[in-house]
Design a protein that fits this description.
The complex is a heterodimer of chains A (about 110) and B (about 110).
Chain A (H helix, E strand, L loop, with lengths): L8 E5 L4 E6 L7 E8 L6 E6 L4 E2 L4 E4 L5 E6 L8 E9 L14 E6 L1
Parallel strand pairs in A: 1-9
Antiparallel strand pairs in A: 2-7, 3-4, 3-8, 5-6, 6-7, 8-9
Chain B lengths: L4 E3 L2 E4 L5 E6 L6 E7 L6 E7 L2 E5 L7 E4 L6 E5 L8 E7 L5 E2 L3 E5 L1
Parallel strand pairs in B: 2-11
Antiparallel strand pairs in B: 1-3, 3-8, 4-5, 4-9, 5-6, 7-8, 9-10, 9-11
The chains are: A mainly beta (about 110), B mainly beta (about 110).
Chain lengths: ~110, ~110
């Protein structure tokens, strides 16, 4: 699986948008971009995933550049409960390797009042 | 459905003892995964099951580790002759699309 690069930490004010970048310059054509987050002392939680089109769900939006070498996760109105480690992962969406996710260090997002 | 359930949530044991963790996945999910997470690191893949078949094991899973999923329902992860380096959070996940993780079982080996 392709490797990802994320900033170690980011801060965001409550109510503002949080934009979390991720570089995945070696992503291959059949690999998706996944985002998970992990709130302290809990298991990781799926947020969103995409292949090449922008995606939006009730939690977040995912913007993938046209060359697919980077992406941005957007939390439109961050709350204190969004404070967590955010992991950007590239992986195949199907086949025998699905679910074998390679987590990096992630980005520690701290939302301030 | 209450999600992925793991037991026990915490286990403290002495070096050399055996421990077993249980995972009850979301009932309709065919795939079940085990991950390990040490302090300050992201989770690392250990193994996964498609129904009752164990299809892949990481090289992190030494011969002291064994996982089973009888009848394709719950799964157990056993660690024999525990070592201090086994201290970690053991996470179970299930899913046939995105993964749903349990709260984890934290192991401390003294």
């Amino acid at each position: 699986d392709a490797k990802t690069t994320q900033p170690t930490s980011m801060d965001c004010a409550e109510g503002r948008a949080a934009n979390l970048p991720c570089n995945h310059s070696t992503i291959s054509g059949n690999e998706y971009v996944y985002w998970y987050r992990q709130i302290h002392s809990q298991g990781p939680q799926y947020i969103i995933h995409g292949l090449k089109n922008n995606e939006t769900n009730e939690m977040a939006s995912l913007i993938i550049t046209e060359d697919r070498k980077s992406s941005t996760l957007i939390l439109p109105h961050a709350t204190l409960r969004d404070t967590a480690v955010y992991y950007c992962i590239v992986a195949n969406a199907g086949g025998t390797s699905y679910g074998k996710l390679t987590f990096g260090q992630g980005t520690i997002l701290t939302v301030h009042p | 459905d209450t999600g992925v359930s793991q037991n026990p949530r915490h286990k403290i044991t002495k070096r050399g003892q055996n421990v077993t963790f249980r995972c009850d996945p979301i009932s309709e999910h065919n795939r079940l995964y085990w991950y390990r997470q040490t302090l300050g690191q992201g989770p690392e893949f250990l193994t996964y099951f498609q129904n009752e078949a164990q299809l892949e094991k990481s090289r992190l899973l030494s011969d002291r580790f064994s996982a089973e999923r009888p009848k394709g329902s719950f799964s157990t992860l056993e660690i024999q002759r525990t070592e201090q380096g086994d201290s970690a959070m053991y996470l179970c996940a299930s899913g046939d699309g995105e993964l749903f993780f349990g709260e984890g079982s934290r192991l401390t080996v003294l």
